[in-house]
Q: What sequence folds into this?
């Protein structure tokens, strides 16, 4: 059962995870219900294990890749994404924010690719302690979520950055491969309820995570095409344990 992070203030905030599961049946029975499926969750304490946030493991982990796409050729030699033999190693194994994540790259890359070293206009990266205090609603069934509301007095409301209507486009998540683990920023524009809960829930203290980092796009401020191109930088390549199936 997913526990709410704030005392219930309305009937939909008292809904437990069983209603979220039952909603799939309700959607099939009434198309009008599709766009009103509210995802009221604590986004902090979840019965889902870290293993529930599971990728599709590659069958050919033989190469190291600088980034998810080949559209940029950054000069840093060690690579960002680790294949199976190197998983859990290196300077990029734990994401704490864009600025610190990009520090290993030389000044030459900053001059050639400034768009990679700064968040696009209308995109906000927000570290939050759990429980987050966010009410998400799915944009489409199992595809995309946005902030429908913030819990009064919750961590997100107290911080004051996130707003109603912000679209979740990235989230930190912990992935385990054998005895090794990493925390990465993962593009989340196509994540549904289960993936969002699994990703946020995987940021546990036992993995050194004292917060979860959300990346959101603010409609009316952001250029979605520009944001999508920026998110390609965080897309896991197919030959790593991070390649996900959404």
A:
């Amino acid at each position: 059962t997913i526990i709410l992070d704030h005392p219930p203030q309305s009937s939909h905030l008292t809904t437990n995870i069983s209603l979220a599961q039952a909603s799939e049946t309700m959607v099939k029975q009434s198309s009008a219900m599709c766009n009103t499926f509210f995802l009221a969750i604590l986004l902090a304490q979840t019965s889902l294990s870290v293993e529930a946030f599971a990728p599709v493991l590659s069958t050919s982990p033989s190469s190291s890749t600088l980034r998810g796409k080949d559209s940029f050729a950054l000069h840093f030699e060690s690579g960002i994404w680790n294949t199976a033999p190197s998983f859990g190693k290196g300077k990029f194994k734990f994401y704490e924010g864009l600025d610190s994540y990009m520090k290993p790259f030389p000044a030459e890359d900053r001059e050639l690719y400034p768009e990679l070293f700064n968040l696009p206009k209308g995109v906000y990266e927000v570290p939050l302690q759990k429980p987050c205090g966010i009410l998400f609603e799915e944009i489409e069934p199992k595809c995309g979520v946005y902030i429908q509301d913030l819990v009064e007095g919750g961590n997100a409301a107290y911080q004051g950055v996130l707003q109603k209507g912000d679209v979740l486009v990235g989230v930190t998540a912990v992935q385990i491969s054998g005895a090794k683990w990493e925390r990465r920023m993962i593009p989340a524009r196509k994540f549904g309820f289960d993936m969002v809960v699994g990703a946020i829930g995987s940021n546990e203290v036992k993995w050194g995570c004292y917060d979860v980092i959300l990346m959101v796009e603010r409609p009316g401020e952001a250029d979605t095409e520009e944001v999508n191109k920026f998110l390609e930088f965080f897309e896991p390549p197919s030959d790593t344990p991070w390649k996900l199936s959404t």
Remarks:
- The first strand starts at residue 38 and ends at 41.
- The two ends are 23 Å apart (CA to CA).
- The CA atoms of residues 116 and 230 lie 7 Å apart.
- The chain has six helices and seven strands.
